[in-house]
UniProtKB/TrEMBL annotation:
The keyword Metal-binding applies. One of its GO terms (molecular function) is catalytic activity. It comes from candidate division WOR-3 bacterium. The keyword Metal-binding applies. Its cofactor is [4Fe-4S] cluster. CDD domains: Radical_SAM. Binds 1 [4Fe-4S] cluster. The cluster is coordinated with 3 cysteines and an exchangeable S-adenosyl-L-methionine. This is Radical SAM protein. Gene3D superfamilies: Aldolase class I. [4Fe-4S] cluster binds at C81, C85, C88. Residues 76-208 form the Radical SAM core domain. InterPro entries: Aldolase_TIM (IPR013785), MJ0674-like (IPR040085), Pyrv-formate_lyase-activ_prd (IPR016431), rSAM (IPR007197), rSAM_sf (IPR058240).
Length: 301
């Protein structure tokens, strides 16, 4: 790390952790607002009670170049999700819930191990439902020398109140911006208010950390990095998503416009999703992004 101190070094994480635990008694961490007592093992939409479930962790070299850097992004994959995307490529983790229950000390050891491996960051994959468990572990890891930026790698269905609770802890927010049509979001991800929730979340994330900043090696230090997956038949509503980002977030936004969609999980049950995207479908999104003045995070094919 080059002349950089993670945001959470200025936070009293022990106090924050105690406050966070109270939130599990009537869980409203995400927009589902299940109001279950997770401290007692009650289960809501995310199927996660008191303890986080970790599927795997390790250096990852398939992320954005600014996260991968030279030694990889230190990813921790959490099982389950607060979305039910019918085409999820990681459905064995997000929907089936493959993984092991992990307490705070074990999770802290994972973070410290990733730092020892030389990873450039701690990349929390699908953290919206395990915010409390993460803060518990971070408090321990910080005391034991963790000094890496935290990446909040989310599906973008996040409550502003929870994001505000995380202010000063997260260095890099990396949300998806999946849809601009709520009816389609309901059909394919069971989230009938996705676009409104996502817009509020992205605005709050940007307020906290601003546009993506890197060090002199091009490695991400702080800021907002947005992902948008192009879906077949314009299902994602890409144009409206990009208009929102350009006009209401920032034209300096880093937007990874992704072309890797392939039918997975239950996509074969939806004929309109049962094929990869075409080169033309991807190109029209790239062209529109450039027309809007967006220019970071994607390269014309």
């Amino acid at each position: 790390m080059v002349n950089f101190t993670p945001a959470y070094h200025a936070i009293d994480l022990k106090t924050k952790s105690a406050q966070a635990l109270e939130l599990l008694k009537n869980c409203q961490l995400c927009p589902r607002e299940c109001k279950v007592n997770r401290l007692k093992g009650e289960i809501g939409y995310c199927k996660t009670g008191r303890w986080a479930i970790v599927s795997s962790y390790g250096p990852h070299f398939g992320e954005e170049p600014e996260l991968v850097g030279f030694n990889g992004s230190g990813t921790i994959f959490f099982a389950h999700c607060n979305l039910s995307c019918q085409y999820c490529q990681n459905y064995d983790i997000s929907q089936i819930g493959y993984g092991d229950f992990t307490n705070a000390r074990e999770l802290a050891k994972m973070m410290l191990s990733l730092q020892k491996m030389g990873c450039h960051n701690i990349n929390l994959v699908s953290p919206s439902h395990i915010v409390v468990q993460f803060i518990e572990a971070l408090a321990i890891a910080k005391e034991e020398g963790l000094n890496l930026p935290i990446v909040y790698n989310t599906g973008g269905y996040d409550s502003v109140s929870t994001l505000k609770f995380l202010e000063g802890i997260i260095d890099i927010y990396m949300p998806d911006a999946k849809y601009s049509d709520n009816e389609l979001a309901k059909k394919y991800s069971f989230a009938n208010d996705y676009f409104e929730v996502n817009k509020r979340a992205l605005k709050e994330m940007h307020r906290q950390v601003g546009d993506l900043k890197t060090d002199n090696r091009g490695v991400a230090l702080r800021g907002l990095l947005i992902r948008h997956l192009v879906l077949p038949n314009r299902i994602a509503g890409s144009f409206k998503v990009l208009e929102f980002i350009a006009n209401e977030i920032s034209k300096e936004s880093y937007v990874n416009i992704m072309a890797q969609y392939r039918p997975c999980y239950r996509a074969d049950k939806y004929p309109e999703l049962a094929r990869p995207i075409t080169r033309q479908e991807y190109q029209e999104v790239i062209d529109y992004a450039q027309k809007l003045g967006l220019h970071r995070g994607f390269c014309p094919p």
